[in-house]
């Protein structure tokens, strides 16, 4: 089955000369949750805006379910729902009216049952008659999501969807996203919350300075680039790593009461056996030990900071 989104050599250069995107190549499969990570100004929102028909690309091609986003923009756009970063709603409309109107914008016939289901799924049903201006920030965010889902899109873009929202809404949204994926909806998520990508995504893309520097299955990414740390709680503190242990990647922590050994999870050997042997030979004893795997956040920071 062909991917639902196919991007080839997509670039965007603004009139100021700023290269926001540089020859992006990317495919996204049907029904997957794809997280796009990157620092501010990396090009995440520009990429989403191009795919949603808000910004015109300078070069390259993008297809949504086979429809070119420029030449066949109506068909492409009808398949897409977008939840933007900004809270942009008509403050004096009711929740029901604004969500129903959004459905009509895409030429969909009235279907109160669909609107009701969307509102109930987002815990908005009891607010259906309330005007937008009376809602809390979190509820307004839910309305944005409801508007994006009203025309039953097959692709949903979430651009920093939980920025500034409470923990309860974030959890509700995670549950909603998983439910949508189960119905076959493809979800593309940009986020600054690394734990959000780690929790939800099937695949991770990292963008920096307009370039897509990596796309990888989340589990494979953490396995390939992750490093483990073995922390030894010493019986007696050290003032420095003894010279006879210089061949190991060691660092002192907690005023010398811990010895931290970092090793590559992909190496043929971890080196732990040799380390323990050398520790015993040096007369260094420990009370306890524990291991820690690199988090996705640590991997992401390392990838971006390594870029020139």
From TrEMBL:
Xref: PROSITE patterns: ABC_TRANSPORTER_1 (PS00211), ABC_TRANSPORTER_2 (PS50893)
Signal sequence segment: none
SUPFAM superfamilies found in the cross-reference section: P-loop containing nucleoside triphosphate hydrolases
SMART domains, sorted: AAA
A Pfam family: ABC_tran
Keyword terms: ATP-binding, Nucleotide-binding, Transport
Molecular-function GO term, any one: ATP binding
Positions of the ABC transporter domain: 5-234
Gene3D superfamilies from the UniProt entry: P-loop containing nucleotide triphosphate hydrolases
InterPro entries the record matches: AAA+_ATPase, ABC_transporter-like_ATP-bd, ABC_transporter-like_CS, ABC_transporter_ATP-binding, P-loop_NTPase
Family as reported in the entry's similarity comment: Belongs to the ABC transporter superfamily.
Entries under PANTHER family matching the protein: ABC TRANSPORTER ATP-BINDING PROTEIN
UniProt protein name: ABC transporter ATP-binding protein
């Amino acid at each position: 089955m062909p991917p639902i989104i196919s991007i080839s050599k997509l670039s965007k250069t603004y009139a100021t000369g700023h290269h926001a995107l540089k020859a992006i190549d990317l495919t996204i499969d049907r029904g997957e949750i794809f997280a796009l990570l990157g620092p501010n100004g990396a090009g995440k929102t520009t990429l989403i805006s191009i795919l949603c028909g808000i910004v015109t690309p300078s070069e390259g091609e993008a297809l949504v379910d086979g429809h070119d986003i420029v030449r066949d923009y109506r068909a492409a756009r009808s398949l897409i729902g977008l939840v933007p970063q900004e809270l942009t709603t008509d403050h004096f409309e009711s929740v029901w009216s604004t969500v129903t109107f959004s459905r009509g914008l895409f030429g969909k016939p009235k279907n109160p049952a669909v609107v009701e289901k969307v509102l109930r799924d987002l815990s908005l049903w009891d607010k259906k008659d309330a005007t937008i201006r009376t809602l809390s920030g979190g509820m307004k965010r839910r309305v944005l999501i409801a508007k994006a889902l009203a025309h039953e899109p097959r692709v949903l873009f979430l651009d920093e969807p939980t920025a500034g929202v409470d923990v309860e809404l974030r959890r509700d949204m995670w549950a909603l996203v998983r439910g949508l994926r189960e119905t076959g909806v493809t979800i593309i998520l940009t986020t600054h919350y690394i734990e959000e990508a780690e929790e939800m995504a099937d695949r991770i893309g990292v963008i920096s300075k307009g370039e897509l520097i990596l796309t990888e299955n989340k589990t494979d990414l953490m396995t390939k680039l992750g490093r483990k740390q073995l922390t030894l709680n010493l019986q007696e503190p050290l003032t420095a790593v003894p010279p006879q242990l210089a061949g190991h990647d060691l660092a002192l922590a907690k005023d010398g009461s811990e010895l931290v050994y970092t090793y590559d999870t992909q190496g043929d050997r971890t080196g732990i056996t040799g380390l323990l042997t050398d520790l015993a030979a040096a007369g260094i004893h420990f009370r306890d030990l524990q291991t820690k795997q690199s988090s996705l956040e640590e991997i992401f920071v390392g990838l971006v900071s390594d870029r020139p």
